[in-house]
Automatic annotation (TrEMBL):
Keywords: Cell outer membrane, Membrane, Receptor, Signal, TonB box, Transmembrane, Transmembrane beta strand, Transport. Transmembrane segments: none annotated. Residues 120-227 form the TonB-dependent receptor plug domain. The lineage of its organism: Bacteria, Pseudomonadati, Bacteroidota, Flavobacteriia, Flavobacteriales. Residues 389-955 form the TonB-dependent receptor-like beta-barrel domain. This is TonB-dependent receptor. Residues 1-29 form the signal peptide. Belongs to the TonB-dependent receptor family. It is found in: Cell outer membrane. The keyword Membrane applies. NCBIfam families: OMP_RagA_SusC, SusC_RagA_signa. It comes from the Bacteria. It holds the Pfam family TonB_dep_Rec_b-barrel.
Length: 1003
């Protein structure tokens, strides 16, 4: 019996073991799991990775998004794809699993580029503004400044003029340097030294603007004027093709009223002017009657026209397996509103990125651009102003052509502007400015461990800027030719090491180390051919009576080391500390190296991850940092020589050299220190956001060119003397006013206030002269730099109206008579010249609105600028000053002073530079209004979406300024830093109003 029991027990155990084994085999049995992977729109995602979590077993989806994988019921499948949020799904008893991947919101919205890396928006400690493509995608753009303007608090963007291909002026939190360049550093995909004017706005995914020193210190000497980090687009998902074509019609917003519209009155007033200076009248009564009947020639009408432009942009993007791509091309053909001025540009971009292994990623970006300006407006003009100024002051009684159909080269009566006929100058000039650029960037990243990675950014740029000009504007009415070639080459290598670890789910520490070397070289060669004997074009330059040749070399090297530590405590407290050590070839031994530190902290009083009701986030920030500037020429610490010829002992002239500037081996860095405090506030479940930043920025040891007295040899010497301070507030407010399935309305307001002040000058001076000369041969300076005042001070006389008949004795005492202009005078009876206005805005803002209703979308963008003046020297020339434009052409001259009508409009020649021509520049502009309608999923077009849109740009302008546009300015070349003389207008190219019609097609 006992033996039988043992046998039964043995058989029972064996049976139990068998059943358990079978059960375990069933539990871990592999089964085929199939399914489909799609994106948020239900479009198949080819090349998605499907991996069993914790193993190397995996597969990829095919072209239609389908996949098959062997997995057990307890396995977890990890679905991932570049640009999409990773999704984990337990298999269980499922044999078919379909997955829809959502775009990675952390990549698209919450992650901010901070230089040499990224961080979550909630962890940002410095003052950073972000502009994404979504904010300007409904606005037809040809220039990056149009995308940036008014959308980032603390960033001022202005168009110097409306010429085709005109430059872009961007300033971040005011102006630092008096003699140096105040342009911000532009970093495109990690490569320093980008150019906004050549970039295609449609290539931009986002722009992150680093504004305070705690954020910009990572770029050291490069970051003194702020940093704009641009990330270009990368492809995701199924391949897509986008085509955008729009055409524009451009016109001047308003013509300036002049006596060219009433030539008879012009002739009468010209006769009075001649009589007042003791000369015979110019016009007879019969000639005046004929002008009253037949009119004359308005040269403003002759040189302005309606311009037609086209813009074509094509891009394709997507991903195949582990490769993502974005390819684009842009052709822009812009016809200027001034005759014979045009601009053409072609851009090509290729962004390729490959996830070679789970740990190694590599990307290659190549960008090429060719732009050509025809008759670059900035190259025209001399001491008498631009061609706009010359057209406004040209004799309207002289027609463009004579009886034989030939140009009237000068006024037939020797009145008005004595310059060459502006229509002739524009039509007969052949000028071509060609800008060719090629850049390549290699980005690699290798994860050495899960916590430690290495990135390499290697970039190179080649830029050839060639200028070829043939002009008939020579002083002797004979053609001149000019050619110059500017070759700029640079390369950069950045080695970036990043280590990050999370301790106890509470302490997040990230350390970034950078070693960087950059080298750039600019070579220029120029020749000028004066007075061509054969007026048949540029290629007859060898027939010129005189030649001059010049060349220049500008090399520069920078070696840098940077260390940044980021610490986050309990997902609330964020601390960032940075130190950068820069060495430059510009300064001498012992002064080459500079150290630039920064520190910033932020605390989330209310964390975005917490459910706290109406207030969704609240963060306090504070930071301090220093950055440097090397804003001098590479040989600025050495003595420079000029050349001239001198006849010694009455013999033939012999060539020689003389010192133009003296050496200063102790010259060192210009340093900017900045303190920033800020608050970020999110509300109503993150539908609204508000940011407020206050800052104080002081630039000391300014690199100034100081004059040397004649007794010590004359010339100048560069010194570290002077200081400038900027204090300001940045405000940003955004809100999704309406959010539902059919109707959405998003509004964003960006506002910046800044007060600039010169706090120190050299030699104990309280002011120094600027370099902008008033036109008309009066040899007076239009701008000054004053201690205790903002940069941008205008200089001139204070206009007090006219001398009246009752003041005849007082007027005679200073050599004047009733009807003459009256100015404020000093104790010695001399006209008192001083500050009469300022061209630096104190408040700028932009208000952007995007509205969508079903298939309709609507965008309008309004911006404004306040607290500045314009020195309207164009109006001074029209009014009749001196030099070559003495005739009166201002329409209000009809009401000039007479013994029986004693107005404050002088009847005689007056000063150009006086407060009479200072005008308030404040303006509000409707920069864009666009309406679009999208036709979706068109079967006859392969399921494509087609958007048809139309609108206008610069549609209205609210301002008291009497010229074309208060934002535009102009001055001659080589007249100093533009930021020291903003708001001076001597015939700037008008900023046009444009109307746009376009179509977008997405396949």
């Amino acid at each position: 019996m006992k033996q039988h029991f043992k046998q039964l027990l043995r058989k029972g155990c064996l049976l139990a073991l068998f059943l358990t084994t079978v059960g375990m085999q069933g539990l871990y049995a592999q089964q085929a799991v199939t399914g489909n992977v799609t994106d948020g729109d239900g479009v198949p995602v080819p090349g998605a990775n499907i991996v069993i979590k914790g193993s190397t077993t995996g597969t990829q989806s095919d072209f239609d998004g389908n996949y098959t994988i062997e997995a057990s019921s307890e396995d977890v499948l990890v679905f991932s794809y570049i640009g999409y949020a990773t999704k984990n799904i337990t298999v269980g008893n499922q044999t078919s699993i379909n997955v829809q991947l959502a775009e990675d919101a952390s990549q698209l919205e919450e992650v901010v580029v901070i230089g040499y890396g990224t961080t979550k928006k909630k962890d940002v400690t410095g003052a950073v503004s972000r502009v994404t493509a979504e904010s300007f995608e409904n606005q037809p753009l040809t220039r990056v400044d149009e995308a940036l303007q008014g959308r980032a608090a603390g960033v001022t963007v202005a168009r110097a003029n409306g010429a085709p291909g005109a430059g872009i002026k961007v300033r971040i939190r005011g102006v630092n340097s008096i003699t140096g360049n105040n342009d911000p550093l532009v970093v495109i995909d990690g490569v320093l030294g980008g150019d906004l004017s050549t970039l295609n706005p449609n290539d931009i995914a986002s722009m992150d603007v680093l504004k305070d020193a705690s954020a910009t210190a990572i770029y050291g000497v490069r970051g003194s004027n702020g940093v704009i980090l641009i990330s270009t687009k990368k492809g995701t998902g199924k391949g897509k093709i986008n085509v955008d074509f729009f055409t524009t019609v451009s016109q001047v917003q308003n013509y300036l009223p002049t006596l060219a519209d009433n030539v008879g009155e012009f002739a009468r007033i010209e006769n009075l002017r001649k009589l007042s200076i003791g000369q015979n009248p110019t016009f007879t009564d019969g000639e005046i009657a004929a002008l009253d009947s037949n009119g004359g020639t308005n040269y403003q009408d002759e040189i302005l026209r309606t311009g037609f432009s086209q813009n074509l942009q094509i891009s394709t993007s997507g991903s195949e397996g582990k490769i993502r791509y974005f390819l684009s091309g842009n052709y822009r053909n812009e016809e200027g509103i001034v005759i014979n001025t045009d601009f053409q540009q072609l851009n090509l971009r290729s962004n390729i990125e490959a996830q070679v292994t789970d740990r190694f990623k590599v990307g290659l970006n190549i960008f090429g651009s060719r732009g050509e300006k025809k008759n670059n407006f900035e190259s025209f003009g001399n001491g008498q102003g631009s061609l706009i100024a010359k057209a406004l002051t040209w004799d309207p009684s002289t027609p463009v052509y004579d009886a034989n159909g030939e140009y009237n080269r000068r006024s037939t009566r020797g009145i008005g502007s004595l310059n060459l006929n502006p229509v002739l100058t524009l039509n007969e000039t052949q000028a071509s400015d060609v800008d060719e650029r090629l850049s390549a960037t290699l980005n690699t990243n290798y994860k050495i461990t899960d916590n430690f990675s290495y990135s390499l950014v290697a970039g190179t740029q080649v830029n050839n800027y060639n200028v070829q000009r043939y002009t008939v504007e020579g002083d002797n009415d004979t053609p001149d030719a000019n050619f110059s070639t500017n070759k700029f080459t640079s390369y950069q290598m950045s080695n970036i090491f990043t280590w990050q670890n999370l301790y106890n789910d509470k302490h997040d520490l990230k350390i970034t180390g950078v070693h960087e070397y950059s080298n750039q070289k600019n070579e220029r060669n120029t020749y000028n051919a004066d007075n061509l004997l054969l007026p048949n074009g540029f290629y007859f330059a060898e027939t010129a009576a005189g030649f001059s040749i010049s060349n220049n070399l500008v090399p520069r090297e920078i070696l840098s080391f940077m260390l940044r530590a980021e610490y986050i405590l309990a997902n609330n407290l964020s601390i960032t500390a940075t130190g950068r050590y820069d060495g430059t070839s510009v300064f001498r031994t012992g002064k080459k190296w500079g150290f630039f530190p920064s520190f910033a902290a932020g605390y989330n009083v209310i964390n975005p991850s917490d459910d706290s009701g109406f207030v969704s986030s609240l963060k306090l920030r504070a930071g301090w940092g220093q950055v440097g500037s090397q804003a001098i020429d590479p040989f600025g610490t050495y003595a420079n020589l000029g050349n001239n010829s001198y006849a010694y002992e009455g013999g033939s002239p012999s060539p020689g050299t003389f010192i133009t500037s003296f050496a200063n081996e102790f010259l060192s860095w210009e340093t900017t220190s900045q303190t920033n405090v800020g608050i970020d506030f999110g509300f109503n479940d993150s539908r609204g956001n508000f940011s407020l930043d206050g800052y104080k920025k002081t630039t000391s040891d300014l690199l100034l060119s100081v004059p040397v007295s004649g007794t010590n040899g004359g010339g100048n010497v560069n010194q570290n003397i002077g200081a400038v301070e900027n204090v300001g507030i940045d405000i940003a407010l955004g809100y999704d006013i309406i959010q539902n399935d059919n109707f959405n309305w998003n509004a964003n307001l960006a506002m910046s206030f800044v007060k600039n002040e010169v706090t120190e000058l050299y030699g104990g001076l309280d002011q120094i002269d600027g370099e902008v000369q008033v036109p008309g041969g009066q040899a007076r300076v239009a701008n000054i730099i004053q201690l205790g005042e903002p940069l941008g001070q205008f200089q001139g006389a204070t206009f007090l109206g006219t001398w009246k008949s009752s003041e005849a004795t007082a007027a005679d005492a200073v050599g004047k008579k009733p009807g003459d202009a009256k100015y404020l005078r000093d104790a010695d009876g001399e006209i008192a010249f001083g500050a009469i206005g300022n061209g630096m805005p104190t408040l700028t803002w932009g208000f952007n609105n995007t509205i969508s209703y079903k298939n309709f979308d609507f965008n309008f963008f309004i911006n404004g600028s306040h607290g500045f003046d314009v020195y309207n020297l164009t109006q001074a020339q029209i009014t009749g000053g001196a030099g070559d434009s003495r005739s009166f052409l201002a329409s209000d001259q009809i009401n000039q002073w007479t013994p029986s009508n004693e107005t404050d409009i002088p009847a005689t020649v007056q000063l150009y530079n006086s407060s009479r021509y200072i005008e308030k520049g404040d303006f509000i502009r409707l920069s864009n209004l666009t309406v679009g309608y999208t036709l979706k999923d068109l079967d006859w077009l392969g399921g494509a979406n087609v958007k048809i849109y139309g609108g206008g740009q610069n549609l209205f302008l609210i301002t008291d300024f009497t010229g074309y546009d208060p934002e535009s300015s102009s001055r001659r070349a080589n007249e100093g830093n533009a930021d020291v003389a903003p708001g001076i207008n001597v015939g700037a190219y008008p900023i046009p109003r444009t109307f746009t019609l376009g179509v977008k097609v997405g396949f």
